[in-house]
Amino acid sequence: MMDPKKRRTIGNRPQVEPPDSEVQGSSSQGTHQVHRVVNSRIEEEPYSLSLQDREMDAFTQSYAVRRVRKSQNNKLTAMLQVRNEQGRYLEEVLHDLSEFVDEIVIVDDASTDGTPDICSAFPKVVRLEVLEKPLFAEEWRLRNALWQAAVSTDPDWLLSVDADELYSSEAKRAIRKLINQDYADWFAFRFYDMWGGRTHYREDELWSMHKRHTATLVRYMPGYSYFYPQQNHHVPRLPLSCTVLPGVHTELKVQHLGWAGSLEDRVRKYLRYKRIDPHGEWGNLAQYESILDPEPRLLPWKEEP
Predict the structure, then answer these.
(1) What pLDDT, on the 0 to 100 scale, is given for residue 67?
(2) 162 or 232, which is more confident
(3) Mean pLDDT computed over every residue of the chain
(4) What does the alpha-carbon distance between residue 211 and residue 299 come to, in Å, rounded to a whole number?
(5) Cβ contacts of 89 within 8 Å, gap of 6 or more
(6) Which of 71, 128, 218, 256 is deepest in the core (most CB within 10 A)?
(7) What's the confidence (pLDDT) of residue 233?
(8) For residue 133, is it left (φ>0), alpha (ψ between -120 and 50) or beta?
(9) Strands 41-50 and 247-256
């Protein structure tokens, strides 16, 4: 039986495992269309798939999942967890999201500034939950609270966004093509750590997030078992159980502005990480120290490929 955590590859490109409902004919070999996303283009490539490879994993068989895979008219809901974002990037991010998502759900982690007022000013914010006590020290609980708030609005797709992230124009143009299909249940993007401004991103052995993919867009299927790993920090954006579903790595870009501010802002973040994770239990101590590197390796940002 095929390992559900492995995606079929052609060359070095991750490909989508089509669901059983797409299998045609009764022979031991079938020819199917495998989709991959290159920027905003969805391309098709044929390959042969054996009956053994098409067996559904026991993990997914154990759940009575109502697999709703709509190929049109999908509702896209962005979900954010925020805390004390006034004067940073939140307003810009919400303006940007309002251009290409249908609804926005936000959990405010007990902000002490005007963050809730900023959120409530945007018409597409359909649900805003303000916590009385912060959950940041137990991030998996915060992620779970956000997930529960988001799925209560009956979404078709969920986009997990931080309050300092901007999707490229190419990504925004492509996103409806990504969600209006019935072969993939999640999509991953390339995130770039912008550094000291918006013209350059950082790239070195400790800062290379853009060289791998981060899954932030997922189809919501009622009845499926979603859960997060119980980690206090650096919890994945999407529930861990999403990884066994068919998905696609794209080359679409996202700017992470968390390090794009002033040196003083980066020092504050450095001190916060050292305070909450002094022994590197949840992160990399060397990376924490590198935040203060006076001459990091920076490369020019190009939004379009």
Answers:
(1) 56
(2) 162
(3) 82
(4) 13
(5) 163, 164, 166, 257
(6) 218
(7) 82
(8) beta
(9) unpaired
CB 154 within 8 A of CB 66: no
What pLDDT score does 234 carry?
83
Neighbours of 96 (CB within 10 A): 17
Continuous segment of H or E residues that includes residue 120: helix 115-120
Lookup: tokens for 26? 């009764």
Look up residue 151 and give its two tokens: 């799925």
Token reading at 68:
């709703």
Q: Quick check: helix, strand or coil at residue 18?
A: coil
pLDDT digits (tens, 9 = 90+) for 271-280: 988 988 899 8
Q: How far apart are CA 185 and CA 161, in angstroms?
A: 17
- List Cβ neighbours of 275 (8 Å cut-off, separation of 6 or more): none
Q: Which two tokens stand for residue 250?
A: 């794209």
3-state helix, strand, coil in the chain (%, to 5): 25, 25, 50
Query: Which residue(s) pair with 197 in the sheet?
Result: none
* SS3 letters across 66-126: CCCCCCCCCCEEEEEEECCCCCCCHHHHHHHHHCCCCEEEEEECCCCCCHHHHHHCCCCEE
User: Alpha-carbon distance 78 to 153, whole Å?
Assistant: 11
Residue 222 tokens read as 């009622």
Separation CA 106–CA 150 (nearest Å)? 8
pLDDT per residue as tens digits for the range 109-125: 999 999 999 999 999 99
Please report the domains of the chain, with CATH numbers, ordered by start residue: 76-256 (3.90.550.10)
Contact 37, 251 (CB under 8 A): yes
Instruction: Name beta bridge partners: 79.
Output: 105, 160
pTM for the whole thing? Answer: 0.77
Q: What is the pLDDT of residue 283?
A: 85
